[in-house]
Design goal:
- With 274 residues, this protein is α/β, with parallel strands linked by helices.
- It has 2 domains: 3-106, Winged helix-like DNA-binding domain superfamily/Winged helix DNA-binding domain (Arc Repressor Mutant, subunit A); 112-269, Rossmann fold (3-Layer(aba) Sandwich), CATH 3.40.50.10490.
- It has 14 helices and 7 strands.
- The chain has helices at 3-10, 16-27, 29-34, 37-44, 48-57, 63-74, 81-84, 92-110, 116-124, 137-150, 162-166, 185-196, 234-251, 253-269, and strands at residues 128-132, 154-156, 174-178, 200-205, 219-221, 226-227, 230-231.
- The strands form 2 sheets. The chain has a 5-stranded parallel sheet with strand order 2-1-3-4-5, sandwiched between helices. Strands 6-7 form a two-stranded antiparallel sheet.
- Helix 13 (234-251) crosses helix 14 (253-269).
- The longest helix is centred in the middle third of the chain and has 19 residues, at 92-110.
- The protein is elongated.
- 39% of the residues are buried.
């Protein structure tokens, strides 16, 4: 339900202050989507508790709950950089709040024992194939770098060479797919092709409506906010690092021995200055 519909339904119950808040939100929905409680309160000329009461009167548990609802509604409207640059976040503190919310979603999806079933196929597989869209590329690189330190045969698949690289993939392999709306065609179609030949798919995506979620039961949902006109890379990188840490834990001696051999080679070849 849109925020305008919610405001209309609560119209007669709104106080004069809450009506001013409603007018500000309707005039500039991105202020609520990306701003803080303090910023909205300052804009309207009221207090933070008044903003929270306004959110609860619309049926939400608090400001953060209302903000998530608004962001969801704007996600399609502002899904393209050309639109986002016309609706920038209200301030650096708004970007910070968005990133904090996104990181919270990563720990919600991959915290504690929840990461174990996602990492298990990556520890057992003969080969690990990594597929990615543009937004999530930083996460894919972080995963490839980290996994390569603790186990062999980790491949970051580039679009131009995917046919050649994936031709030998099979049932003993696993693939990790990072992708979020608007979903890169190559990442989705390559993941489908791998699933059809029995490769175990692990998907890091943004919800049950993602085309990746239909390919596997082994997937997690994280939120990816915009920072400026572009999607943030931070949540995907954080998810990758949690996966690597868990794979290293599951591999134990295998991971330790591989890291020791790598360190010895670096030392023998003078890789680092210090």
């Amino acid at each position: 339900m849109s925020v305008s519909t919610l405001i209309a339904a609560a119209g007669e119950r709104l106080t004069p202050t809450e009506r001013r808040i409603a007018e500000a939100v309707l005039d500039e929905p991105t202020l609520l989507a990306f701003g803080t409680v303090s910023e909205l309160a300052e804009r309207v000329g009221t207090s933070r508790p008044s903003i929270v009461r306004f959110a609860t009167k619309l049926g939400f548990e608090g400001y953060a709950d209302l903000q998530r609802h608004i962001r969801s509604g704007l996600s399609q409207q502002l899904s393209r950089p050309t639109e986002r640059i016309r609706h920038p976040e209200s301030s650096p503190s708004g970007a910070r709040a968005s990133l904090e919310d996104a990181l919270a979603s990563v720990f919600e999806a991959l915290g504690g024992d929840r990461v174990v079933p996602l990492a298990a196929p990556l520890a057992r597989a003969r080969n690990v194939w990594i597929l990615t869209g543009e937004t999530s590329r930083a996460g894919a690189h972080a995963l490839r770098s980290g996994l390569s330190m603790v186990r062999p045969r980790v491949h970051l698949v580039e679009e131009h060479s995917s046919g050649r690289e994936l031709s030998g993939a099979g049932k003993e392999d696993a693939a990790v797919v990072f992708d979020f709306a608007r979903y890169r065609r190559h990442a989705v179609t390559a993941a489908r092709a791998l699933a059809e030949v029995g490769v175990r798919i692990v998907a890091v995506t943004d919800g049950p409506l993602s085309p990746l979620a239909s390919l596997t039961d082994t997937w997690c949902e994280i939120r990816v906010p915009a920072t400026g006109p572009f999607d943030s890379s931070v949540p995907a990188v954080a998810a990758a690092e949690l996966l690597v840490a868990q794979v290293a834990t599951q591999l134990q001696d295998v991971a330790r021995n591989r890291i020791d051999r790598t360190e010895a080679l670096w030392e023998a070849t003078g890789t680092f200055l210090g």
